[in-house]
Amino acid sequence: MPRLSLVKTGNLGYLEALDKRIQAGEMDTVINAVNALQNTGWSINPTVFEVASYLWDETDGGVAGLPPRDGYRLPPCPTCGADLTDTTSRRDTRPWSSHGQAGRTPPATCCAGWT
Known about the structure:
mainly alpha
């Protein structure tokens, strides 16, 4: 697996300075904390999930911090501006990976990646 940067930035000078601090052991506490977070397993609390599912399925939403089920508008597609709430504007429903574009910029029919 390739070595990844701790911080995503285009500032190569900053990355080089950060790398020097990491190599000097000045960032050990931060590195250990990030590694601990990455190694922490997670699971869905079944009781919380059951309550949330009930509230979502049996109410109109808008309770207990849940968004309303109806009338909620998705923001427009950040690439083409299409209305993602309107299913007729979804020109292509294949995921980006089926376009051979996984992890890259969306294809011309970009709405597939946002829904």
